[in-house]
Structure formats: C-alpha cells, structure tokens
Design a protein that fits this description.
Elements (H helix, E strand, L loop, with lengths): L12 E6 L18 E8 L1 E10 L7 H4 E7 L7 E4 H4 L10 E2 L3 E5 L5 E5 L3 E3 L2 E8 L13 E9 L9 E9 L25 E7 L1 E13 L10 E5 L8 E2 L3 H4 L10 E2 L3 E6 L6 E8 L5 E3 L2 E6 L10 E11 L11 H4 L7 H18 L3 H7 L2 H4 L3 H15 L3
Parallel strand pairs: 5-12
Antiparallel strand pairs: 1-11, 2-10, 3-8, 3-9, 3-11, 4-5, 4-10, 6-7, 7-8, 12-22, 13-21, 14-19, 14-20, 14-22, 15-16, 15-21, 17-18, 18-19
Helix pairs in contact: 5-6, 5-8
Length: 401
C-alpha cells in the first residue's frame, strides 16, 4: 500500500489467520506431520493478503526446502504460488541470512529461531487459500516440531477493480546446468552467445503483468568466478536480441565486480557468499519495485550460466510477479531428493552435537537452554566448523561430558 493512500478511506477490514491456540492456552503453533498438508488461511470473497510471517525453533536445515508453500486465488484448483517455505523468504541452500529488504525481512530470535516476513500485496476477488505441504521424513520443525505463523489480510465487500493482477511465485532449478563449448568452467570473454537458447530460465509465462522480484542461488562446483553470465529477458515474444540484455550476474543484483563479501540492501543483495574465491554456495536477491519488468503478452527471464553458458553449476531460483490471467505454476517442482540442499562436510557432526546439547540443556533448565541456543547460531548459517566449536564451548560451560 503506497504511504500516500493511508489518509484515504479504507475499503476493507483487517483480518489475520494464525497458529494461535484455539483452546486459549499458549500452545500457539501448528504441528505439521510428515506427508501432511495443512491449510494456513482460507477466505471466501474479495480481499488482499498484506503480510506473511513464520518461525520455527531448532528446525532441520532440510525443513526449509521440505515445506512447500502454495497459494490459490479465486477458487483455482492449481496454485499460483508454489515455492519451498525458506526459499520464498530468500533463504538460499537452506542457510539463514538475516536481511532487512523492502519486501522480505529475516530477523533474529535467540540463535536457533528466526522470524521470516514477506510484504507482497496479494489481492483476490472471489477467494484465497494458502496451504503448506511437508515432504520431510519427520514432523516439521526438528526436535521442537512446531510452526508459528501469521497471515495478515483485508476482506472487502467487492473486488477492487483497480487490482486485476494476481500474485505469482515459482521455484525452479537446474542441477547441474550443462556447460556449452570446449572450455567448461573457465572465465571466457570471446565465446559467442547470440541466441540465449541454453540459458538458465527463471520465469516463462504468458499474460499481462509485471515481474517484481528474483532470488537466485548458485552452487559453484566448477570453482573460480562463475558470474560472467548476462541476464537476457525476452518480452512479448522478442526475437534476438532480447528487450533487456545485461552485462553480468553481479550487475543484476547491484554489486560491484565479482562480489566477495556479503551485502543486503532494500532492493538488492548478494546475501550469501561462502568463500572469497567464489567456490561453494552463493545467493542473491533483486526486487524490481521502482523498475518492474512489464509485459503485455509474455515474459521469459533467462541468464547465462557463465559467459556463453560454459559453466556446469547448480542453479535454482524463485521468481515473483503479478499477471492476469492468473496461471498455475505446477509442473516444475522437482521431487524432494532432487531439491535437498548440499550440506557439506561436518554437518552430521554439528547436528549430532546440537541435538545432544539441546537435550542436556533442557534437562538442566533455567538459563541453560538459552545458552545452548545462542551457541547453536552458526549451525543455521551453515558454518559447520564454527558450530562444532561453539557447541563444544556450550557443553563446557554447561558441564556436559
């Protein structure tokens, strides 16, 4: 909602769907079992979702990929949003990074819990339904097994004719991309790409609308700087060249040449960088709010994986856009095993220490639980060596053998 509309008369009334304890006690969470799909919010009639929040405590790293968020508008039986819960809130590779951007914020809790907030406006004319499917092998939320959530929305007597576009978000991945040419995994400048046919595709849709956001994730197996890939955005069936042609991956996300340190701003971020030599996991976001990518018939957002597509790395993405008519985004979500993030060395050791430390701290009670939680923070950022060291220190302070 633009701030200059706050003094105009409101059309609707505010509502919230949440995990509050219907008995009146303080068990204000949902328990989502393995294989279960729960309905988080449902409304018949017109309205608009304005804010989505969730939190867990001591979740598994894989929980952020195993929980699938879906949104259905206006009685549709197929979703217009289908994204893993963590990825929807800019979590890349299942690792937590705290950010304060315009559309998504990730705020700290007490080490093992974080608050995830999204502020996309999601209007509907005849009804809305938001569900969460859990594809993991055990209850969502790890040892605690709990999900806290809020979905704030407005209800209206009649649809807002000024808001015909519907919110969409879609997860895609290609693991790995197929390197093109005789020099895979090398930084190139003279190779030629004059078609874009081998590019990674983050969005391919037909209708009238605007693309408003992108989260991009790369797992760099090849090593070295991988980001010479240009974005090539084909608007309304462009023949070559595309209407929007960029100059490299870091430019899309507002960075200087080859970012080696993490940053996160209101509209752009390279918010996850594993290593200054560009190896390992990387994550980026871009909110196209002041400069949405508009289309009248179709939009195909693509990017090279290395210049002229010569890198074979794992790519995944979430695209966010508004369009009419609303379309289903099913059919591109891989199976669970194919989507699990790479955990790397020492994850299992760190997870075991976390489990043992938490169990012991809960038995000790009092401040022990909070101390253990604060020393577990590095586990959720994916820094396994640091997590092992921090949890060992927590055990020493707690007197745990």
């Amino acid at each position: 909602m633009p701030i200059n509309s706050l003094t105009s008369l409101p059309r609707g009334r505010s509502r919230r769907a949440s995990s509050w304890d219907r008995s009146g006690a303080n068990h204000d969470w949902f328990e989502v079992e393995s294989g279960e799909t729960v309905t988080l919010m449902e409304h018949d009639g017109a309205g608009c979702v304005t804010h989505v929040y969730f939190a867990m405590m001591y979740p598994e790293i894989a929980d952020y990929r195993d929980a699938i968020l879906r949104c259905f508008w206006d009685g549709a039986t197929a979703p217009s949003v289908e994204v893993p819960l963590g990825d929807f809130f800019t979590l890349v590779h299942g690792r937590v990074r705290e950010i304060k951007s315009t559309m998504v914020t990730v705020n700290p809790g007490f080490g093992v819990s974080h608050g995830f907030n999204a502020y996309f406006r999601m209007p509907f004319a005849h009804g809305a339904r938001i569900t969460l499917e859990h594809r993991g092998p055990a209850r969502l939320g790890g040892r605690i097994g709990a999900l806290w959530y809020h979905i704030d929305y407005e209800v209206q007597e009649a649809p807002d004719k000024a808001e015909p576009l519907r919110f969409h978000a879609q997860f895609r991945q290609e693991r790995p991309t197929t390197p093109v040419g005789a020099e895979p995994g090398r930084q190139l400048h003279d190779a030629v790409n004059l078609s874009g046919v081998d590019n990674y595709v983050a969005l391919d849709t037909q209708g009238i609308g605007r693309m408003v956001g992108l989260v991009l994730q790369v797992d760099n197996h090849e090593g070295g700087w991988w980001g010479e890939g240009d974005d090539m955005v084909f608007v309304d069936g462009d023949a070559w060249p595309p209407a929007i042609h960029g100059t490299g991956t870091e430019e899309i996300f507002g960075g200087g040449a080859s970012p080696a340190w993490e940053y996160a701003g209101p509209y752009t971020g390279f918010h996850h960088i594993d290593a200054v030599d560009y190896s390992g996991l990387t994550g980026m976001y871009r909110w196209y709010l002041h400069d949405p990518i508009t289309f009248q018939r179709s939009l195909r957002w693509t990017i090279e994986h290395g210049h002229a597509n010569n890198f074979g790395n794992d790519y995944s993405s979430v695209a966010y856009w508004y369009q009419t008519p609303a379309v289903a985004v099913t059919g591109t979500l891989p199976d669970r095993a194919a989507m699990l993030p790479r955990l790397g060395d020492r994850h299992d050791e760190a997870r075991r220490l976390l489990e043992e430390t938490v169990v012991a701290a809960r038995e000790l009670g009092g401040a022990a639980y909070g101390l253990a939680a604060r020393h577990a923070a590095a586990f959720y950022t994916g820094e396994w060596d640091q997590a092992v060291a921090d949890l060992a220190e927590a055990r020493r302070l707690l007197g745990i053998a």
